[in-house]
Amino acid sequence: QVQLVESGGGLVQAGGSLRLSCAASGLPFSLYPMGWFRQVTGKEREFVAAIAWHSGSTTYADSVKGRSTISRDNAGNTVYLQLNSLKPEDTAVYYCAALKYYSNLSTVDYWGKGTLVTVSS
Of 33, 70, 109, 120, which residue has the fewest beta carbons closer than 10 angstroms? Predict the structure, then answer.
């Protein structure tokens, strides 16, 4: 079965950094575009970042552009999200996703269960 398991979330002070990890199994990881999304209680899940299968193409939401980096290790079946200069508004549950198409970020084949990032002020 397909599993996407996030880790790396936690409580950090504003201005700090975190690196989130997503370990994938049960799917041909290297063939999937991967993405990160986040969701705050009471709000819709929003796109954060995505990376193509070859890792050469990435895209970021304006809210995190310049402060985050998505990367992947195809050999290790892992995708990462480096978050820097964290703000309280970055507080959310962050979800890893396997995308059906890199060109259509709204089409998700598989979701992880999420990891909570809490940024204190």
Answer: 120
